[in-house]
Structures
1.
Amino acid sequence: MAFKINSKIKGYSVVDEDDDKAVLDRASEAEPARIDVVQMHESLERPETLVGSTYKIKSPLFEHALYVTINDIVLNEGTIYEQRRPFEIFINSKNMDHFQWIVALTRILSAVFRKGGDVTFLVEEMKAVFDPRGGYFKAGGIYMPSIVAEIGGVIERHMKTIGLIQDPELDASTLALIAEKRAAYEAAMRAAPVPPASGDTAANESEASGFPPGATLCAKCNTQALVLLDGCQTCLNCGYSKCG
Ligand SMILES: [Zn+2]
């Protein structure tokens, strides 16, 4: 440890080895007691009570709504190492057609949650699953390739809420660029309005999603927000542009 001496030195004595050790011992005593950090592990016992959230999924592929419940365990509560992690997942529905694979999926997901380590990879794996019968559009113009992908989306939302996934916010310059492109597109539309292709439905759809009618699906953010601007496909949601 270094000290800056600001006053005059009036005397000194040489420290021998034993004194040095004594100083070190005192320093280690002063250190706060080490905390035993609990990590997520499969042998971790389930507490009697867990906190959680339930999300509702309504899909045109399912007659009845799905209710997804994710319960969390709080590790190292009250310390600087406090962490909330998903511990188990349940999915309930009136619909029994898909009962067996839903039970299998939730049991495996819960087992992976309890194994510990990084479990955020599950989100990407699930969101990449597509239904060969075709997906569907959600409110906001977001394309869902399958019901599994939508369950993955719910897990992602939950992990963002508990702070396990950091949301990469669009930076200010990208947001400004999107706003600029959108204004340019809307100005061009006013100058030469294109009649909606299928009457009222198209207009209603665009109102629900907040993107212009006739916008197509963006491959980058899976949102129906791609418009033709100056001869170039441009996404009004994430800023993606085919021309770079
Ligand atoms: Zn996009």
2.
Amino acid sequence: MITIRQEEEKDYQQVFQLTEEAFREMEHSDHQEHFLVEKLRDSEAFIPELSLVAEDENGNIAGHILFTKLKIVNGSESFESLALAPVSVKPEFQNQGIGGQLIREGHDIAGKLGYQSVILIGHEKYYPKFGYEKTSNFGISFPFDIPEENGMAIELVPDGLKNRKGIVKYPKEFGID
Ligand SMILES: CC(C)(COP(=O)(O)OP(=O)(O)OC[C@H]1O[C@@H](n2cnc3c(N)ncnc32)[C@H](O)[C@@H]1OP(=O)(O)O)[C@@H](O)C(=O)NCCC(=O)NCCS
């Protein structure tokens, strides 16, 4: 039995460890994701309600997901969206649907908070299961080169990305622009 709930300060150490562990064997990783989570918690882009943990019945933290504020910039216009990054499931808990639960619950909360879309860079086979499609379908691009299929977005409400063309601007803590 897995419960998804908002992360609390007492979880920080377990989240740090599981994030490091989840990305340890990942090829396309700088292996700094656990430090990124720490930086983002102190950032203006942080939304406490959208830092979620998956907890098992014994109180072990099996996974974590973080959505932070992100901008889509088009000349002098700027639109608010969310970045999904990172999502981590402890290796021994992977492939049991926990990543999916974290993503879906995150979408639900984000929608209730009034956010209209989410943008991410990730595996093109995983995120479409949850409704993500290529950002290029929405006229949204990244300020650096990535394979087109790895930049993805979801509308949390109908037309949530209509007339929201532009270039993604990640929070500075990501260090990617
Ligand atoms: C990606 C991750 C969060 C998925 O969580 P999970 O709880 O294992 O995933 P789920 O149980 O919801 O989904 C499992 C499905 O996703 C697939 N999947 C899992 N990780 C994947 C990945 N990195 N790339 C492509 N597919 C992946 C599995 O093969 C499985 O497919 P199936 O349903 O067709 O059998 C988890 O595997 C993880 O922490 N990986 C390491 C860190 C990472 O890659 N994070 C995402 C990048 S930001």
